[in-house]
Write a structure and sequence with these properties.
Layout (H helix, E strand, L loop, with lengths): L2 H7 L3 E4 L4 E5 L10 E4 L8 E6 L3 E6 L9 E5 L4 E6 L7 H7 L7 E5 L2 E7 L5 E7 L7 E6 L1 E2 L4 E6 L7 E8 L2 E5 L14 E2 L25 E4 L1 H5 L13 H4 L10 H9 L3 E4 L3 E3 L17 E7 L10 H17 L3 E6 L11 H5 L28 H16 L5 E4 L7 H14 L4 E4 L26 E4 H8 L21 H5 L19 E3 L9 H8 L5 H17 L3 E5 L19 H4 L3 H6 L1 H16 L8 H7 E5 L4 E7 L4 E7 L5 E4 L6 E5 L10 E3 L3 E4 L3 E7 L2
Parallel strand pairs: 1-7, 17-18, 17-26, 18-21, 21-22, 22-23, 23-24, 24-25, 25-26
Antiparallel strand pairs: 1-2, 2-5, 3-6, 4-5, 6-7, 8-9, 9-13, 10-11, 10-14, 12-13, 14-15, 14-16, 19-20, 27-28, 28-29, 29-34, 30-33, 31-32, 31-34
Helix pairs in contact: 8-9, 12-13, 13-16
């Protein structure tokens, strides 16, 4: 029996725990004293400081530190053994991190002065090659170009050729086998991301990007969340290239000068468009038309735009150019773009380029060796490790420096560590001081210690980072997980005493709920988003006995809380005209007819759209509704009443006084007024207007049921 067969029959494996410890797993009695370890094909035995022999394993403590990317073999002539030492857990060891962390800015394929330079971080690889492949059939290798190992385990290849639009992969030798993968730092790819594509951005003919004037403060923002396909797919949308980047950049069917959809968002009063993920994702076949539907929270390539949104998904340059043009077109019309980014997991951890290049490094594992799964989709990225953190930061740089995005919304931000999020926010704000940076601070069961997670609980450690305030959402309409217990607007206002906390931006210590945030700028206020039921769908399920007009009043009341609270208002596309997803709670892969914006419904609800639009105008006009510090909130805020399902508060500074009334009761509520003052009503529940609806000189005011009223004191 040869050594290989003998090894196989006894199921023997060897792997590195770190750079000085090797574990051998064995299922049969073996004379471990006869084993020794060598480097590659050399005969010299490496020194073993200590050997721990157990029933099913033996642990070797090496005298000298081993090197990554070098083949080590366990040999025994007596036992007829010759096995490769696999890299095992060593990439997750502190020694590996310290020795191989690379801080250069040249990873990926870079075109420069008619040269093309490739660089890939794979310190565990014994060999690495650039494979130039056929764009139409990436299985066909046109050239195999050897790379040179350099500092920190970075492999390089440089050529005097300009390889613009060339398709390529990397081939690496790891654990005794060759593996092919795309480049994690590539800025474009072939269809469905099987191979990367070299892009010389100077050859794209993009022109000069539009610059916008500086944006004053996050509290002046109005975020409008929309999915690329939802927005234009409806047959009455009036947009060309439905579901594509081009829907935003082409004139409408009626020959409008700009896309009617873009004009609609701007006229509504939004300042920032938050687009659901644009980074290349893996759940749909880009070659299909029409493609299957998915939100896109399953990323593959974080530097590459999603190909199904391009006019020609088969053209690797089209998605780059059209994505750039889409964002530039928003800027040309005064709108900013917030990119929804998903760095917390990959579509498939095992097949992701990062895992193939450095197995076991970029993801978290449990104590039992399984992939951590706090995200609920099979894997959690290890942002706390240097090169995963660098990957995230480098991707953010690319989207800011090339695409000129204006901010980021971090999906499941609580999966990430605090330090990475702090560094990410600092990087983004250094590049664009008026950028927005916020995310989901949910505390999820990942293997990172709780005290290190970027969760809502740790908002005080991230004072420049915004967090989705799910308290506003659940207070207003109840939890989507418990439809038996409605919230303020659909429950008669029983929790009216809690509303002042949310109206004040969730920052005041003196409130019973205690402060969530250091400043109102951290509070992203919302009652619906792409997740869970729309506000309309939740209201009709919690109050099925209510008339449609009363459901609409509840809906307007909830939206007014978002818009008139201190902090940053966030609207889900279509919320302004009672968007429904036909009571589908999680529509991430539901058919397009469920997810699309119904533009006919928009036309039927012009009065609601005007109500939201004018509320946003009111917010914009009165600075006292947009305070940017805890101190300013405390000095301007007064709670007038929280009785009988109706909350009344006052905002007053040196130049403005507003009184806001939110009545969730099914009955009228009468509250006192200062009869020595004259008030102008600008919101009455059905209508919002900068032009006063009527003037009030009285010692009391009656608030209609299920309505918001706003008074401005005459000064």
């Amino acid at each position: 029996m040869n050594a290989s067969a003998a090894t196989e029959s006894r199921t023997i494996k060897a792997f590195m725990n770190n750079l000085q410890i090797v574990t051998i797993i064995h299922t049969a009695d073996i004379n471990m004293e006869a084993l020794y370890i060598v480097q590659g094909h050399e005969e010299e035995k490496l020194q073993i400081e200590n050997m721990e022999i157990m029933e099913d394993r033996t642990v070797l403590h090496m005298t000298e530190e081993l090197e990554a990317g070098v083949r080590y073999r366990i040999l025994s002539e007596e036992e007829e053994l010759d096995i490769i030492v696999e890299i095992g857990e060593s990439p997750r060891s502190p020694e590996f991190e310290e020795k191989y962390y690379y801080d250069g800015n040249d990873l990926g394929a870079v075109c420069e002065n008619s040269r093309t330079n490739f660089a890939v971080w794979t310190p565990v690889a014994e060999e690495a090659y650039v494979l130039l492949v056929d764009t139409g059939n990436t299985d066909i290798v046109l050239e195999r170009l050897p790379m040179k190992r350099t500092e920190k385990g970075v492999y390089r290849f440089s050529t005097i050729r300009s390889l613009h639009e060339a398709a390529y992969q990397y081939e690496v030798l790891i654990n005794g086998d060759y593996h092919r993968t795309a480049d994690p730092y590539a800025v474009s790819s072939t269809v469905n991301g099987h191979a990367s594509v070299v892009i010389d951005t100077q050859k794209l003919g993009l022109g000069k990007p539009v610059s916008l004037p500086a944006f004053s403060s996050p509290v002046d923002a109005v975020i409008y969340e929309v999915h690329m396909r939802d927005f234009s797919a409806h047959y009455k949308s009036g947009m060309y290239q439905k579901g594509k980047f081009g829907a935003w950049t082409k004139m409408g069917k009626n020959r409008e000068a700009v896309s009617p959809g873009l004009t609609y968002i701007k006229d509504l009063g939004a300042t920032h468009v938050q687009i659901l993920p644009l980074q290349d994702f893996g759940s749909i076949d880009e070659k299909e038309y029409p493609p299957a539907y998915n939100w896109g929270y399953d990323p593959i390539h974080h530097f590459v735009p999603e190909g199904s949104y391009a006019g020609d998904p088969l053209d690797p340059t089209a998605k780059v150019k059209e994505c750039w043009q889409f964002i530039n077109h928003l800027h040309a019309h005064g709108l900013r773009l917030v990119l929804d980014v998903v760095y917390n997991h990959f579509y498939n951890a095992e097949t992701s380029p990062l895992s193939i290049l450095v197995p076991g490094y970029f993801f978290r594992f449990t104590d039992s060796g399984e992939l951590s799964n706090g995200t609920g989709v099979g894997n959690d990225t290890a942002s706390e490790r240097g090169m995963m953190r660098k990957y995230i930061l480098d991707s953010l740089k690319h989207w800011m420096d090339f695409y000129h995005v204006d901010g980021f919304r971090f999906d499941l931000m609580g999966i990430h560590d605090i330090e990475t999020i702090r560094q990410a926010e600092e990087l983004v704000s250094e590049r664009k001081k008026d950028s927005l940076f916020y995310g989901e601070g949910w505390d999820l069961d990942t293997s990172l210690p709780p005290e290190q997670r970027a969760t809502l609980e740790h908002a005080g450690e991230l004072p420049a980072v915004g967090f989705f305030n799910d308290g506003v959402r659940d207070f207003s309409k109840g939890s989507h997980m418990d439809l038996e217990n409605p919230g303020f607007v659909n429950g008669g206002g029983e929790n009216a005493s809690e509303l002042p906390f949310y109206l004040s931006g969730s920052v005041l210590e003196e409130m019973e709920q205690g402060p969530l945030f250091e400043s109102p700028q951290q509070s992203i206020n919302y009652v619906e988003c792409h997740d869970n039921y729309t506000l309309w769908d939740q209201l009709v399920q919690t109050r099925p006995e209510m008339e449609t007009e009363d459901i609409k009043r509840m809906h307007r009341l909830a939206s007014s809380i978002v818009i008139l609270s201190q902090g940053v208002p966030f609207l889900h596309a279509g919320q302004e005209f009672y968007r429904t997803k036909h009571e589908v709670e999680n529509s991430y892969k539901s058919p397009i007819w469920i997810n699309q914006l119904d533009w006919e419904q928009k036309n039927r609800n012009a009065e609601s759209i005007n109500y939201i639009k004018n509320l946003l105008e009111i917010r914009k006009k009165y600075a006292v509704l947009r305070l940017d510090s805890k101190e300013a909130v405390r000095s301007a805020f007064e709670v007038l009443s929280t009785e009988n399902g109706c909350t009344a508060v006052k905002w007053e500074n040196e130049v403005e006084e507003l009184q806001l009334f939110f009545n969730a009761s099914p009955l009228e509520q009468t509250l006192p007024l200062n009869e020595e003052k004259t008030f102008h009503m600008i919101v009455d529940g059905d209508i919002a207007s900068l032009i006063p609806l009527r003037t009030i000189r009285s010692n009391e005011i009656t608030i209609p049921p299920l309505s918001t009223v706003v008074l401005v004191a005459q000064v």
